[in-house]
Amino acid sequence: MLGRVTHRGICSTQRREMRNKVPELQKLFQENNDVPIHLKGGPKDVMLYSTTMSVSIVVYSK
Q1: Whether pLDDT at 60 is above 70
Q2: One-letter-per-residue 3-state SS of 16-51
Q3: How far apart are CA 34 and CA 29, in angstroms?
Q4: What is this structure's pTM?
């Protein structure tokens, strides 16, 4: 069973169309809009940054 699944994944005749996102991301990160680079990725970056800072403050305050 596993052999069939891996064989189908490797030898598939159907190809997926992949779009190059690099130029779009380069434009986004190179804009001069006074947003720090670590927050330019959007809401996920803001949430990750806020969580990291909160955990750091809690850990260092003990």
Answers
A1: yes
A2: CCCCCCHHHHHHHHHCCCCCCHHHCCCHHHHHHHHH
A3: 11
A4: 0.59
